Amino acid sequence: MRLTADLFRWGLSVLLMVPFLAIGGWALGLPALLWAALIAVFLGGAVNVAAVVRGIRRVSDGRAVDDILRSVDGQANAPAEPLDVRQRLIFPDEPDALDADPDDRRLARRTAALGSALGLVALGVAGALIAAVAIPRALAGDGLTLTQTYGVWGGGSVLFAVGLGIWSIAVLVVAAALWLSGRADGPVARRLASPRRIVALAAVAGAALVVGWFAPAAAPGLAGALGPGVALGDADAWRSGFGLLGVGLCLAAIVLTVPRWKRRVRR
């Protein structure tokens, strides 16, 4: 029945992607994401149906009962140990990872935390450059330099700078917290702060930061200060591109948390 459960997890993962694809496609004005959401509905449903059909067949021919009895026999022959509930929808445990050498797990956890923190910092740098340079240049076109654009912007540029500064500080705080999560040690940290959990948390945090980025990236008052003839399409392309990155991070978080990646041996 384990393969059946894994099929169900993958089908559920695809279905969980649907709202993020649909909302992202609607908010960013990207029809491709709306089509992807529609395809994900049918694909996820088909995988779940396959999982249900396989489970029913295994129950009807007795193989599911054999699996249960084999599991019970294995537990009866194993040394007595406290039972640990590991069946959960989010973050399924991997026994091999839990039994790995503590030093190797500590190194993997710290590497994942450092990589995730650097990834968030890179996200912050990219977002700041797009909001502070690419979007103002796109709106102004070739008629004004970046310095002249900020001069025309006036008081709106101050509001923009404050918003972008708050967002950048939030990026650094979240990145530092992720890095510290990999440095923490102890039974709770070793149990909860696995490398995959850290990377998934970084993906969720990155998606949230992308959503917050849209406040300063709206460039308040700039289009009105520049007057007619602003290149709104070019600026929207930059916003959509960065927003698409946020949708990708949401999908990555689902893939990292719901399905089980360990390969099953089919019996």
Largest sheet: none
Separation of termini?
10 Å
> On the 0-100 scale, what is the average pLDDT?
81
Q: Which sequence of SSEs, written as H and E, runs from N to C?
A: HHHHHHHHHHH
Organism: Microcella alkaliphila
Keywords: Membrane, Transmembrane, Transmembrane helix
Protein name: Cytochrome d oxidase subunit II
Transmembrane segments: 7-27, 33-53, 112-135, 155-178, 198-217, 237-258
Give an account of the 3D structure.
This is Cytochrome d oxidase subunit II. InterPro entries: MFS_trans_sf. Keywords: Membrane, Transmembrane, Transmembrane helix. There is one protein chain. With 267 residues, the protein is mostly helical. The protein folds into 2 domains: 68 residues; 167 residues. 79% of the residues lie in helices and 0% in strands. The protein has 11 helices and no strands. Helix 1 packs antiparallel against helix 2. The protein is flat and about 75 Å long. About 6% of the residues have low confidence.
Give structural attributes.
267 residues; mainly alpha; 11 helices; MFS_trans_sf; transmembrane helix; membrane; transmembrane
In summary, what is this structure?
The protein is mostly helical. The protein has helices spanning 2-28, 31-60, 63-77, 95-98, 102-140, 146-153, 155-183, 187-192, 195-217, 222-226, 232-257. It has 2 domains: 1-68; 100-266.
